Amino acid sequence: MLGLERKDTLLLIAVAFITLFAPIILNPFPAGSALAQFNAGYPDLMQRFVIFGIFAIGFNILFGLTGYLSFGHAAFLGIGSYSAVWMFKLLSMNVIPAILLSIVMAGLFALVIGFVSLRRSGIYFSILTLAFAQMSYNLAYSVLTPITNGETGLQLTLSDPRILDGDTGGGLPVTSLFGAEMRETTTLFIGPWSWDFSVGYYFCAVLMLLAFYLSVRIFRSPFGMMLRAVKSNQQRMNYTGLNTRPYTLAAFVISGMYAGLAGGLLAAMDPLAGADRMQWTASGEVVLMTILGGAGTLIGPVLGAGFIKYFENIFSKINDGILHQWFAFMPDGLENVMVALIHPFIGKGWHLTLGIMFMLVVIFLPGGLVEGAQRTGRMFRRRDRNADHVESDAARQRAAAE
């Protein structure tokens, strides 16, 4: 199906099912209940899940296949955002031209940066990409203010020409897809449950599925095998006379275009681009996503992106008031002790919880969350086989006794 093997087809179907039904899956608790705090099925957060999933999928093509660790991929995320906002200002609020320009511009910048950075490997490559990203950040923040609007960020204004849209009625327009507004949302109520279905989310979700499908084809292609060979032993490949730089440069450019797509989608959801999207912390975040989920695996980066964004947006909102509600059934003294113990790990301290979990994953599950799922599956299969052996032995003993 679609040129994929059976295993990859089933994985794509599973990802598509989870993505398309995410508004229901991520809102399992009734509104107003004590556990509603953990619901994540609202449009803004779901859009971040899939957008950063695209970002991580693209980064995994470079890092997971070639082993080249880039600390500067946020530069392409920012370039994609700036390109999209400029398209909204000059041409139209339709998201399609903006997304296309974001991909093209990020690819061109990745070609230039990759051409220079890939002259070195290992830590030297990582430092070069970090240097380029920080230069891009500083250029956007202070030097190129006529293009980026500096620390304020690039945003829409009433005086923007938008030559294809014409008169907007005196107010700032909103991004749309051939007339359907990105922020348009339909809410379904069934009893105490409610689910939001957003145009913007499903637009991002479809693009993520296409990006995931393309990554599967790359992983299973001869090009992907060549990238794995680079990761395995690039020096030996060079000794055979094979020039690996065109392959690594192609992987770098493709990865940068994925980041540009993610940046364009961020701007499509909220037409604002700032230099903060180019900071080294944003580059480090996508590294964490990929390693946490499972570098070199197909589904790992998506899981890692969802995991980190969930912590960032859900755990960071838990405060002492919510903790007191949870432990209200306890005596006052014990309730205060429990709140005091948990307080450093929630709210503003969510980074501490995430850091501890990341350390545990790296130490005990070097393959990330995917390896954890694989170990769990093998454990259950082994238990089933042992149960079958016990039953067969018992059957043989009964037959021998008869």
Automatic annotation (TrEMBL):
Subcellular localization, as worded in the UniProt entry: Cell membrane
Pfam families: BPD_transp_2
Segments of this protein annotated with the region Disordered: 382-402
CC terms in the record's Gene Ontology section: plasma membrane
UniProt KW Transmembrane keyword: yes
Keywords for the protein's UniProt record, in alphabetical order: Cell membrane, Membrane, Transmembrane, Transmembrane helix
Predominant location: membrane
GO molecular function, one term: branched-chain amino acid transmembrane transporter activity
Transmembrane feature ranges: 9-26, 46-63, 94-116, 123-144, 199-219, 246-266, 286-311, 323-346, 352-373
UniProt biased composition (Basic and acidic residues): 385-402
Membrane topology of the entry: Multi-pass membrane protein
Protein name, UniProt field: Branched-chain amino acid ABC transporter permease
Protein source organism: Limimaricola cinnabarinus
Lineage: Bacteria, Pseudomonadati, Pseudomonadota, Alphaproteobacteria, Rhodobacterales
